[in-house]
Structure formats: C-alpha cells, structure tokens
Amino acid sequence: MTENTERLVPTPGQTIGPFYGYALPYEGGEFLVPLSHPNAVRLQGTVYDGHGATIPDAMLEIWQADENGRVSKEPGSLKRDGYTFTGFGRVAVDNAGHYDFTTVNPGPTEAGKAPFILMTVFGRGLLNRLFTRIYLPEDTEALGNDPLLSSLSEEERSTLIAQRLEDGSLRFDVHLQGEHETVFLSYRGLE
Amino acid sequence: MTVENDDTFEPLYAKGADDAKDTQAQLIDEMARISTQHEASGTVENQPRLDYAPYRSSILRHPTKDPRHTDPETIELHAPAFGQRDVHSLESDLTIQDGGEPIGERIRISGRIVDGSGRPVRNQLVEIWQANAAGRYIHKRDQHPAPIDPNFTGVGRCLTGDDGSYSFVTIKPGPYPWKNHLNAWRPAHVHFSLFGTDFTQRMITQMYFPGDPLFALDPIYQSIVDPKARDRLVATYDHDLSEHEWLLGYRWDIVLSGSNRTWTEDDSND
C-alpha cells in the first residue's frame, strides 16, 4: 500500500457531557477477565479535580496486552463470553469518583520493555479526551530504561506508576489538575 | 425556576456549573475576548481548548500542563476489535428499538470515517447517543421538564463498512437547557464515540445541525476557537440521502487523527 503523504485535518473532539451513563457503559465493561480468573488483578483508583474533589461523572477506558504481552485482535468486548481476552475495558466512576477494573497484569509487548496499561479519560467539564499510561511498578530496570519515564521529573514519573497494594491490586489515581496533576500524553503526528 | 439539568452534585468551588448566575451577554463577551486573542495570535487550533473558562465545568477539570509528547508503543498502535458479536445490525436504527414509533422528525445521518491519510476506518465501532425531539435524555440526572418519549432511548451503535461508512436512522434531537449560565441552551447535537486503527485515535465528539441559532451562544461549541475547525462538527443537509415520504438526510464525514502505524498488506486485507 502506498503511503499517502497528504494529511487531512482531524475532526475536533468535544466533551462527553453529563448524560452518557445510559449509553456508553455496559454490563461487564470493567471485567477484562472474570473475578474467578486465577490471575485476576484489581485495578482501582479515584479521579480528582483541581481542588482535590472527587469527580463523579468521568468515564475511563483501558486497553492493554495480555499477560504474555500479546495484543488481542479478538472481538467481544461489548458482549463478554468470560473466556476471551479482548484487552479493552470501560467503566463509569461511581458517585465518589472511584473506579474498579478486573484484569491481568500486562506482559511487556517486546522483551525488556516496561509493561503498561493505556488509559483514556473522559468527563463532563473535560472538553477532549486525555491519554495516560499506567505502568506496573515491578520491573524497575525496564522502568529506568523507558523513554517516556526517563524524560520526566521524579514527581511527574510517580503519577504514571501504579502502586501495588498488599492484596495484589493496582492503585492508580487520576488528577486532572493541581499539585499531583497526572502526566497526560500526546503522540507525534496526532493531536 | 431553576433548571436542574446539568448535574446534581454540589461543586466545592465558587464558580461552577450549578451556579448559573452569569448572563448570556457576559458569556458572549468572554467568548469574544478569547476569539479576538486567538485571531491576533495567528495560530492554527483544530481541537477544542481544554482550558476554556466560559464552559464553567472545565475550570477545575483541565490539565494545566501541556501533554507530554511521546512515541507510541506497540499497544498504542493497535485498537480493540469489535464484530457482529458486539453489535447487532438493528442497533443503527434508533426508531425501532422500543416497539412503537418515536415522536419527531425522522432523519438519517450517514458519512465516512477516515484517518489523517484518508484511509477508511473499516469494521470499527461507532456509538451515538442523543436527546429526544423535545430535548430530553433518558438519564436519571436529566431533570429538564420536557417529555420523555417511551419509544426512544436515543442510543445507537454500528460497525463501519469496508469503505469506512456508517449510517444511523434516528429522530432529530431538540436543543436543551443547562446550568452553565442563566438561560443557557445547548444547540441540538448527537454525541459520537469513535475508534480508529490505533487506540491513540480514540475520540468522542458531538455532531451539530446546520444553521443552528445557538452556535454563537454555546461555550462547548465555541471552545473550538477556530471557526473553520468547529464548522467540521456541523453536518450538511443532503437531499440525496433523504427518502421519499420517509426521512431527511444529513451527511457528516469524520477524520480521525493520523494513524502512526506502518500499514502492511495484512492490515489492508484482514
């Protein structure tokens, strides 16, 4: 296929608004694997605004590789069968701004790479979606070699690395603004 | 009477979505000032500003730091797959979902979804949601005193075709009031949720209808400060899409931000 060098101007985004709740979240959206999966991991956290208040009307999506670092090409995220790992999850935060996903620890997509979960944040009051990465905390050598993390200050870096709690779950809070503002991402060639 | 439309949650800050104290004239002034500054700057802005104070709810919900540029990694160069199992073909007709016929102006919205290089986004999920003809959402927090239509959920889904095309049959949504400021009304719109070939193309936006008198008054629409850019969210009436004694047609094409993936023969054939 010949690469077309002409770039079209992208359509602008807009806020998800307040009334997506009956339209986008779906049953099983937060379960990338069932609770009964032997390696099921809870990914949890809270979404905060610039005053540190919790945001009750945000929606989060995650997209990740499986435990072996393989990227799923399987459909079925919207109608889960309980067996197929599709790599995609969606959840609306609750009234306290809290979210839960049930998933597995992603493996590195290439040897030596730091494994991470990609997260997209939508919300009322947020005029366009935001991207961020949730790095697993364990492989410190890979984290040390990660090009993105290496370009950040220690404080910024800590906003992207999930905390492993005693029960094995991952904690990752999202701060849209303020002292602990999460590092959000843009991609070359994309806006 | 206070219109309890936007939210039931108490904000902790002085100037919030629930205050609705400012007048439309004040809002127009604020928006005009930003617009003048933008014109003087001579810069091109194709996306909404995240920091756009006339949309009051954005004040504490926009990052203050610029996003960090990074090279996409493998997972970011792929997107989830959706298929027949996820989406039933009848879900693209919002007028047949609850037995009876919904009330309002029956319309079709059709278009194509392409990436920044013009390549069609094939077999990918499109989700829409909208208010009914009276401007009311089926959402427990929408308290706008307009009738709920028992035959209309306002929710639809489809998968794009091989040429990136999508098509929905629905009812033209009504404008509705919200609490950003006094007598604030959103122009009629349909929310669109879109996936591309790369997850970095993921986007949610709103499609508007041509000639809406509320465009100049609406801070969400005006948060895209470049008039040419915000005009990309407005569908065009297309008489070729209209059907004899049945419905009116609107066309709206969508360009996702460019794909960073190096495409292979495999990609174009799978």
From TrEMBL, chain B:
* Enzyme category, top tier: oxidoreductase
Which EC number(s) does UniProt give? 1.13.11.3
Q: Does the keyword 4Fe-4S apply?
A: no
What does the record give under GO molecular function?
Answer: protocatechuate 3,4-dioxygenase activity
| PANTHER family registered for this protein in UniProt | DIOXYGENASE, PUTATIVE (AFU_ORTHOLOGUE AFUA_2G02910)-RELATED (PTHR33711), INTRADIOL RING-CLEAVAGE DIOXYGENASES DOMAIN-CONTAINING PROTEIN (PTHR33711:SF10)
Which residue ranges does the record assign to the Intradiol ring-cleavage dioxygenases domain? 109-137
Q: Which InterPro entries match?
A: Intradiol_dOase_C, Intradiol_dOase_core, Intradiol_RC_Dioxygenase, PCDO_beta_N, Protocat_dOase_b
The answer to whether the entry has keyword Oxidoreductase is: yes
What protein name is recorded for this chain?
Answer: Protocatechuate 3,4-dioxygenase subunit beta
Top-rank taxon: Bacteria
Its family? Answer: Belongs to the intradiol ring-cleavage dioxygenase family.
> PROSITE patterns, alphabetically?
INTRADIOL_DIOXYGENAS (PS00083)
Residues in the signal sequence = none
Gene that encodes it: pcaH
Q: Which UniProt keywords apply?
A: Dioxygenase, Oxidoreductase
Under Pfam families, the record lists:
Dioxygenase_C (PF00775), PCDO_beta_N (PF12391)
